[in-house]
Structure formats: C-alpha cells, structure tokens
C-alpha cells in the first residue's frame, strides 16, 4: 500500500493579540491563574467581522502553496477541519477552493472539534493510500472567538483563532503516516458543546438570551477524560510500533492545556525538549493547533524523524498518529526565506 506523507506546511495567524492582562479587564481572572492552570499567556484574535474561518484557511493554503512552489490547480482535494465554518453550508472547503483557485479539486468540511485536524489528516491520507489522489490539502482552521462568550471566565481565557495547512502526497517507502488510532464516544457529548444553532435548537430569541450559541464546557470533567484519553492513545501508538521515548523526536500534541500535554509526555517517557508547545502564544485554536506546531517547528524537522501527533476534544473525539517525517525542514524554510527576500 502506498503511504501518505506531509510534504509542505503553511499557516495564518491574525495580528491582534489578546493577552492575559487584557482578559483581566474583561472578566474576574488573573494572569497567574491562567498561566498556572492552562499555560497560556496570549492568543490571536481575528476581530474583523468581515473575515472568518475561510479567510484564515485560504491564507494558510496560500502560504503553503507559495513555500512549496505549487499551483493551486494541482490540488485534487481540500479537506477542512473546523467547528466554526463560515456557514453551515456551503462547506468552508468550497469557499477556500474558489479563493485559492483549486479548479480541479473537490472537498468537504470535517467536524471533530479538537481532534478535527487529526481525523482530517487520516481521511486525506486514505485518499493517497487508495491511489485515488496524489495531492490533498488538509487544513485545520477555527475562528473560536466567534463562539466564545467573553463574559464567561471559565472558557474565554482558553481559545484563540488561527489556521494551518499541510499537503499530503505519496510517500517514499517507509516514510509518512505509518499508523493511526482514532476514537469517538458520544456518552459525554454535553460536557463540551455548542448547544444551539443546529437542527435541534435552531436560532430563536430564547437561544440567544440563554447564550446557547456559545461554546459550553464543563472544564474539570473534560480535563479528567482528556488527560487519560490523550496519553492512552499516544502510548498505544508507540507500543504497537515498537517505539520507546528515545525513538520519538517530537510529540505534536493538541494544545488545550499545558498540564494535559505534560501528563501525556510523561506517560510516553519524553523529556520536555521533545514536546512541541505553542499554547503559551496562541491558546487553544481547536483544529489549528497541530498543523500550527508542524509549521512552527518545520525548520527543525529532518527526514526520518519519528513524530507522534495526538489530540483529544469535544464529542468526545480523540486519537494519535505515528508519522515518519518525510523531508528536511531547514531546506524548505531557507529557500522560502530566500524567495521572500528576492520578491522584496
Ligand atoms: O480542547 C478540547 C478539550 N478541552 C480540554 O481539554 C480542556 C480541559 N479542561 C481544562 O483544561 C481545565 O479544566 C480548565 C483550564 C478549563 C480549568 O482548570 P481547572 O484546574 O480544571 O479549574 P476548575 O474548573 O476546577 O476551576 C477551579 C477554580 C474554580 O473556583 P472554585 O469553584 O474552586 O472557587 C473556578 O471558578 O478556578 C475558578 N476559575 C477561574 N479563576 C480565575 C475558573 N476559571 C477561572 C479564571 N480565572 N479564568
């Protein structure tokens, strides 16, 4: 079976920062609580009301295409992981396909909350593995500020806006996405959800008055499931591929809470230098956290590095993936920089 490899990455971050000091002026919270309980110092917010998830996903895709020197018409499928689509329909994938000029692509949105990118990546990989496609664009994008209640201190300190993209192509033998574990369990669906706006509770004055169009989370309970679920699948994917902590170059974790990530890394036998962490700067950007990490660490990644991607999110949804990185990131980063200098 052909394998799929990530062969390029790109990202978009809004310029505006929302710091812990800013939040202290909005709700009854403080920098020390936020940092010690979550690990977050600031997040990026797309305040512009005319721009949303499709815009961010488009910019991330353009960044990737520019770095890879690829024309959008070569893309065969666009899969967008998001829980904050611009609209229920058309799919955000359609808006992005048009905006980047991916004239030969089909695609769709995938909803799996914080595990969305992982599930989209494994879905995209299966199109490559089956031989159906050779170039699949997978994007994680969320404008979390659009569903965040900035009067609720238990959730508004957690989330940020961002998008990041990866390209999947057929891998050389032994490289790419080598194993995936995915799980869902709807038994605790109400612990992390957006109660209204769908067919069960369509928008009414009442749903708005009751703030049912915002994200709701029972944080402490979700924490308990997340800390166990994310570590369990990460350890399992290592075990069934015969990997020890020494073999893993990086854990690429969903960034919901520093304490969940630390616990996962400990169970995997990893030292702190082997964990990609950007929660401090961006908060929880839902579907964007994992590809954002891959983008930001690209220059350090080398062909043959063993990565474990892992996530846990609303639903519940969770999973882990074993990836043997397929290219030397320093070369791409250097050539992209040279190109930007040349373009002025
Ligand atoms: O990304 C998808 C999945 N989501 C997650 O993985 C998130 C999982 N949950 C968490 O990360 C954590 O539960 C939170 C960061 C959301 C909360 O941390 P916690 O340590 O679980 O706090 P808690 O909810 O148990 O609250 C402890 C106290 C409470 O006060 P009392 O009842 O002990 O007096 C809260 O009211 O902290 C209070 N609190 C705050 N204090 C200052 C809650 N939010 C804040 C705040 N600032 N922003």
Structure, briefly:
Helix content is 35%, strand content 22%.
Question: Hey, roughly how much beta strand do the residues contain?
Answer: 15-25%
Helix content: 25-40%
Mean pLDDT: 96
Q: What are the low-pLDDT stretches, counting only 5+ consecutive residues below 50?
A: none
Q: How would you sum up the major sheet?
A: 5 strands, mixed
- What's the domain count? 2
SSE map:
Layout: E1 4-12, E2 17-19, H1 20-26, H2 31-38, E3 42-44, H3 53-68, E4 77-81, H4 92-100, E5 106-110, H5 116-129, E6 136-143, H6 153-156, E7 161-170, E8 176-184, E9 192-193, H7 205-209, E10 216-217, H8 219-239, E11 250-253, H9 258-268, H10 279-282, H11 289-296, E12 306-313, E13 317-324, H12 329-343
Parallel strand pairs: 4-5, 4-6, 11-12
Antiparallel strand pairs: 1-7, 2-3, 6-7, 8-13, 9-10, 12-13
Helix pairs in contact: 3-4, 8-9
């Amino acid at each position: 079976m052909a394998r799929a490899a990530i062969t390029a990455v790109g990202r978009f971050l809004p310029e505006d920062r929302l710091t812990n000091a800013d939040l202290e002026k909005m709700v009854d919270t403080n920098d020390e609580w936020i940092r010690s309980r979550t690990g977050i110092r600031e997040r990026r917010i797309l305040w512009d009301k005319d721009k949303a998830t499709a815009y961010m996903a488009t910019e991330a895709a353009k960044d990737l295409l520019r770095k890879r020197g690829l024309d959008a018409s070569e893309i065969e499928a666009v899969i967008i992981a998001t829980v904050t689509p611009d609209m229920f329909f058309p799919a955000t994938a359609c808006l992005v396909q048009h905006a980047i000029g991916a004239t030969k692509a089909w695609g769709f949105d995938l909803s799996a909350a914080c595990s969305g990118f992982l599930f989209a990546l494994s879905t995209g990989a299966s199109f490559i593995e089956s031989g159906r496609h050779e170039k699949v664009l997978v994007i994680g994008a969320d404008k979390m500020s659009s569903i965040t209640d900035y009067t609720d201190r238990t959730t508004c300190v957690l989330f940020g806006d961002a998008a990041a993209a990866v390209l999947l192509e057929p891998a050389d033998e032994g490289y790419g996405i080598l194993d995936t574990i995915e799980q869902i369990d709807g038994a605790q669906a109400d612990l992390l959800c957006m109660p209204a706006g769908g067919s069960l509770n369509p928008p009414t004055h009442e749903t708005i008055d009751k703030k049912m169009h915002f994200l709701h989370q029972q944080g402490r309970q979700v924490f308990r499931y997340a800390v166990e679920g994310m570590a369990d699948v990460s350890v399992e994917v290592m075990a069934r591929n015969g990997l020890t902590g020494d073999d893993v170059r990086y854990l690429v974790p969903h960034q919901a809470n520093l304490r969940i990530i630390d616990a996962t890394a400990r169970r995997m036998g990893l030292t702190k230098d082997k964990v990609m962490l950007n929660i401090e700067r961006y908060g929880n950007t839902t579907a964007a956290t994992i590809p954002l990490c891959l983008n930001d660490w690209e220059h350090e990644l080398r062909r043959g590095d063993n990565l474990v991607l892992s996530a846990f999110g609303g639903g519940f949804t969770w999973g882990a993936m074993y990836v043997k990185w397929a290219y030397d990131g320093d070369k791409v980063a250097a050539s992209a920089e040279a190109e930007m200098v040349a373009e002025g």
